[in-house]
Amino acid sequence: GFALMTEAVGSAGMMEIPVVIIDVQRAGPSTGVPTKTEQGDLWQMLGASQGDFPRIIVAPKDDLDAYNSVLELFNLVDRYQCPGMIISDLLISEGRFSVDPDKIDFHPKIDRGELILKSSTNTDEYLRYKNTESGISPRAVPGLENYVHVMATDEQDEDGVLISDEFTNPIKRRMMVEKRGRKMHDIFEQVKAPVLEGPKSADITLVGWGSTYGVIHEAIQQLKNIGITANHLPIKWIVPFHAKNVKKILSSSK
């Protein structure tokens, strides 16, 4: 499962390769209760691989949201050149939902980010990992003439040369870590902050993420039937996490 493949997450982070990983969670620990619904992989996905690097984790609430999240995540990882993970479970992956076809985008917009599409004779200064203000380095599409470059899982300089091949250069190392990290500032602005659903003033505030959305709404109705008002704060984007927004909402909850 995902636990055996986390080295690939770190590889994508270091080489700045866009990749989307779909994880259908199961009960743990170890093989636990294979494929049965439980949100048991969260910590595994948060800490997958070593070190600190940009990653995006999204938890869709149902099948339609999962479909739309895949489209959105593919664009995000292509734009920011980092791994992205969809954290799902059995309820979504094998559940049955009725979906209005008009809500499905069959022709989504595709955003590949900053690409170099045309060959040039002046490629001596091509820096695959150029240290830009945004942290995003323009990519040459595969096979483009005169744009040969090195990619490896070791830390590298802007031109792809491994810094461990000369000596461990702390200045270059810090520069590259900070370059990659700057991407998260813009990613944070691109994903929507969670919004409180239901009455602002309620007896109980229920917080959940992923497929707990439907169960929580059923619980809210059951509470209403016995005279207890409740609202719901669904968390979709796990990373980046809108901590200030969540804190502000929960600080006014009972």
From TrEMBL:
Family matches, as CDD domains = TPP_PYR_PFOR_IOR-alpha_like (cd07034)
Q: Which UniProt keywords apply?
A: Oxidoreductase
Q: Which InterPro entries match?
A: Pyruvate:ferred/Flavod_OxRd, Pyrv_Fd/Flavodoxin_OxRdtase_N, THDP-binding, Transketo_C/PFOR_II
Picking any one GO biological process from the record gives: response to oxidative stress
Single GO MF descriptor: oxidoreductase activity
Q: Does the keyword Oxidoreductase apply?
A: yes
Keyword Oxidoreductase listed: yes
Q: What is this protein called?
A: Pyruvate flavodoxin/ferredoxin oxidoreductase pyrimidine binding domain-containing protein
Organism from which the protein derives: marine metagenome
